[in-house]
Known about the structure:
The complex is a heterodimer. By secondary structure, chain A is an alpha+beta fold. Chain A has helices spanning 42-50, 92-101, 107-120, 136-148, 166-183, 194-200, 218-223, 228-233; strands at 4-13, 16-26, 31-35, 57-62, 65-66, 77-80, 154-158, 186-191, 203-208, 211-216, 238-244, 248-250, 256-258, 261-262, 270-275, 281-283, 294-305, 309-316, 319-326, 338-343, 348-352. Helices cover 23% and strands 35% of the residues of chain A. In chain A, the strands form four sheets. A six-stranded mixed beta sheet of chain A has the order 6-7-8-3-9-10, with helices on both faces. A six-stranded mixed beta sheet of chain A has the order 13-12-11-15-21-14. In chain A, helix 3 (107-120) crosses helix 4. The radius of gyration of chain B is 23 Å and the shape is globular. Chain B starts with a helix and ends in a 6-residue tail after the last helix. At the A-B interface, strand 6 of A face helix 8 and helix 9 of B. Chain A: Pfam families: ABC_tran, TOBE_2. Chain A: Residues 4-234 form the ABC transporter domain.
Amino acid sequence: xxxxxxxxxxxxxxxxxxxxxxxxxxxxxxxxxxxxxxxxxxxxxxxxxxxxxxxxxxxxxxxxxxxxxxxxxxxxxxxxxxxxxxxxxxxxxxxxxxxxxxxxxxxxxxxxxxxxxxxxxxxxxxxxxxxxxxxxxxxxxxxxxxxxxxxxxxxxxxxxxxxxxxxxxxxxxxxxxxxxxxxxxxxxxxxxxxxxxxxxxxxxxxxxxxxxxxxxxxxxxxxxxxxxxxxxxxxxxxxxxxxxxxxxxxxxxxxxxxxxxxxxxxxxxxxxxxxxxxxxxxxxxxxxxxxxxxxxxxxxxxxxxxxxxxxxxxxxxxxxxxxxxxxxxxxxxxxxxxxxxxxxxxxxxxxxxx
Amino acid sequence: xxxxxxxxxxxxxxxxxxxxxxxxxxxxxxxxxxxxxxxxxxxxxxxxxxxxxxxxxxxxxxxxxxxxxxxxxxxxxxxxxxxxxxxxxxxxxxxxxxxxxxxxxxxxxxxxxxxxxxxxxxxxxxxxxxxxxxxxxxxxxxxxxxxxxxxxxxxxxxxxxxxxxxxxxxxxxxxxxxxxxxxxxxxxxxxxxxxxxxxxxxxxxxxxxxxxxxxxxxxxxxxxxxxxxxxxxxxxxxxxxxxxxxxxxxxxxxxxxxxxxx
Lengths: 354, 262
């Protein structure tokens, strides 16, 4: 087991920059999610770490050893593919044992290791089946067992839960996390599902157009996004654009919004503020005045009831703001109602424009 | 309802007519190889005389062995070379690949008469001349495009992640090919091999051009024999070959379940 360091990695395909000077440090034993829209370079990055493709420039180290020119079969990695890529001509046990068998291990050793790996993914009795006789979730587990049985230094997962239905996905998320903890392997996980990234990983790296936009623990990225893209891609955010006043921004109509977090910017430059929908309180009157709170007035244009919570869309000066309110059963606002929105500066993140 | 049943009946009739069209001449020939009269005269009288005299016909027997040997060797060569070429075309991108792939098809459509003439001229030009070796080379060349087309078609259904998965598990190029890719394309390789065998074993035109008197293949020998005068021995040898090759085809189809099973 080992950590993975990626430094200044660049890779172009023709004129398209798939990876542009990406540096990330994946600590030993951590669970990382690489998150981004399609075409953001997250899969390219994973394939670079795996060794299917070599970088134009930059370095990749696994356990301190530079591997950027080492082909995949010599990197000692384990990989789970999006469609599992189980060998259709082999039994489950032969699939799992493949990595040991190509390393010319003794048959008895292979059988023992395969059984242990299958037990770990709770498929101990299915070794004799063929892949086409398994369900999607079972195939997923076989692919995982096959990837870890060789005791790789790092486990790479390419949207491994993408083909499963919602309920099974949640089960597998928990299962995957349990197995990862149990063997303590450094895991890098590519996904475009923000919820998956938030719930499973110790750290998240957000990619866009081949560049690393932000990297850190899920809470940090969620609470302190460094760009509008990070704010809106990981979770929902209301974005206000204006000019900085130093401690916040002034909107074009003169309204001031105070920000208690985020970048330190010189006054007068263009900047944005991001606020999470669940941080905003919504009411029909000004209520008890809180001199520090940010305050905006608007009109409810739409309300979506979702059981445990409701989402209100509030129109205000040509902008639609989103507010999520827990269902306490106390008060429900009607569409068309005039409302006051309030939130604390601590919930407001100042972001440099661009 | 009545129309449906009528259509069903038509369909069944059609299948039977098709089978009759394919097999009737062969069945008649096979029956006549057991008939006493050498001139296809009825009533039918059972005999194995022609099979006995076939045993004495050294020329026909040696031509049969030539055909079998050339067919087997050219099948092996064409199947191995063709499968390897298909894999190379599947895996690698190189300059002129499209042109090369396009050039693989026309030889299938070029009349064998023309190919045969061209080969004869070419083999004389380069000093190979005529003979069994020239026939073997010719058959390999004729069979190669068939093998490549069939194996490439099978490769189109192969998921490239399987090779990647094998490599990620530490398999080298040879292990990837022999343990993952080959098992998948095997039905294609077998089918390509059957094509190659048929092209060679059936081959008259090219063999005729490239053979020397006395050293030839069965189709050419049969043709020569018929020109001298028809004998039911031809029926006998043909019947044996049909029985053997049909058995081979059915066995292969049974073992490799073409089209079926995933």
